[in-house]
Every structure is written in structure tokens, then in C-alpha cells.
Amino acid sequence: MDELIIQKKGDKKLIIVLESNKIVEYYEVSEKTKSKIGNIYIGIITSVHPKTNTIFVDIGLSKQAFLELKSLDKKYKKGDKILVKVKKDETSAKGAKLTTNVNSKDFDLPDFEKIKKPRIIYLSNSLEEKILKDFKGKIYKDNEDYIAKFGLETELEKVQNTKIWLKSGGFIVIEKTEALTAIDVNSGKTTGKKQDKKEDIVFKVNKEAAVEVMRQLRLKNIGGIIIIDFINMEKKEHEEEILEIIDKEKSKDHTKIANCGFTKLGLFEITRQKKLAI
Known about the structure:
Blueprint: E1 3-9, E2 12-19, E3 22-30, E4 40-49, E5 54-58, E6 65-68, E7 81-88, E8 97-99, E9 119-122, H1 127-134, E10 138-140, H2 146-149, H3 153-157, E11 163-165, E12 171-176, E13 181-186, H4 198-219, E14 224-229, H5 236-250, E15 257-262, E16 268-272
Parallel strand pairs: 1-10, 6-8, 13-14
Antiparallel strand pairs: 1-2, 2-3, 4-5, 4-7, 4-9, 5-6, 7-8, 11-12, 12-13, 14-16, 15-16
Helix pairs in contact: 4-5
């Protein structure tokens, strides 16, 4: 049975999803600074920059938010009101990133003429609410220390590990860069029976790695382009089975994943939409 633990720890709330007693999703949500992602505002344009196709907008936060468009036309000018949604939270260096891709079916649009200053008109559901809405298993969210009760301390310490050992003796290494996440599969200490062929041993490690990689993507909430360097396989049917395993495992994820399959260089490419902690 799948299990969900929601537990407070200091000024954070821990959200843990278990499948077959194994952690597959883990989030730390600050109780002090909640994300604004998904919130919808009527903002006031403070400046327009045609050379960079950027608009700066006051939505009532500490920094000016910004909107990047493919092209700007004359309809955008300083002082105008604009309907926007927060796409990325503000950081210490810059304001929140906005989008005009807004679905107004969830709220009533007020009269723009009566609005004199920035106003929030739709508050996005929290990550906790979103997970609770979709979750089908048993939920633990009382004040009890379920992390200790379920003996999850050691597993939680490993959540941020970039080197993950497999039962076979192989391991995977996860390396994040600005452009993508690279995952390398290694045979490590893997040994087989005397009669086992090298291809069979390699295939065994790759199959185990495929399952673990998909778990790690959820566990670490990795988004964007992911390149997996499986150990080279000689048989085409083995590559096809790896693809089937990844397809099966991605169905357990609750965010959008696209398999691009093996490239000509033998690398496996995936894109994953990061689940946003709001």
C-alpha cells in the first residue's frame, strides 16, 4: 500500500511518499516563506524594454516581477494593468518570473478600471493540498513522529546523495548542471555466475538502474533535460526492454515526463516537468 507522511519539523513541513516501504517523493516546505508559484495577480507595468522583450511588473511583492515575451507590441506601456501568473519565485537576486498564460475559469475577473494597485485574485493550492487531492493510499498527518516510527531516518539522510548503490553491486551517479542532469550507470562491484555472459550482467545492472533512476527523479524532484548513460548493450531487444521499464516506472510519477529514447550515441534522454513546491 502507498503511504503519505506529512510531518512538521521546526519551521518546515516534511512531505514523504512511500511505495512498498520505500521513499519515492520527499519535499521540505518552509512554513515561513510559502511559494507564490501559480498565484494570479493583476499587476501594474512599471517599465517596458523592447530590446530584450521584457516587461517589469509590480504585483505587490518585495521585488519587481518580470515577464519575457517573444515580441512586444505597442499595447504594453508603463502604468497599464496586466493579468499575470507567477511562474518562478523571486530570489535574492531578481524578482518573480511571470507568464500571461492564465486560465480564468477558476476565478471571477474583477473590473480592471476599479483597480488602483496590484491585487492577487487567485491563490494557488499548496503542494500539500495537491498531493492530498491525488493520493490514494494511507495518510499519516497527526503530530506523531512517523519518521522515527517507520525507521526512515537513515533513508532520509541518503536523499541528497549523488551516488546511489544498486543491489547488484552497480551504482548510478547523478550530476546536475545548468543545462541538464547527467546520470551515469556503472557496473561497480557487480559479479555474475561463471556461466553468465558479460551482456547478461550488463543488462541486469541496466534494468536495476532504470528503476532506480526513475525513483531518484521523483525523490530529488529533478526537472528539465535528463541524460542517462547506461552501460553499453549489444542487443537491440535489451534497449527496448529498458525503454519498457522506464515507461512503466514513469506511469507512477504524477508529473509530465517525455521519453526521447536512445540517441545515436547510445544515451537515453528524458524530459521531466519539475513538481513545484508551493
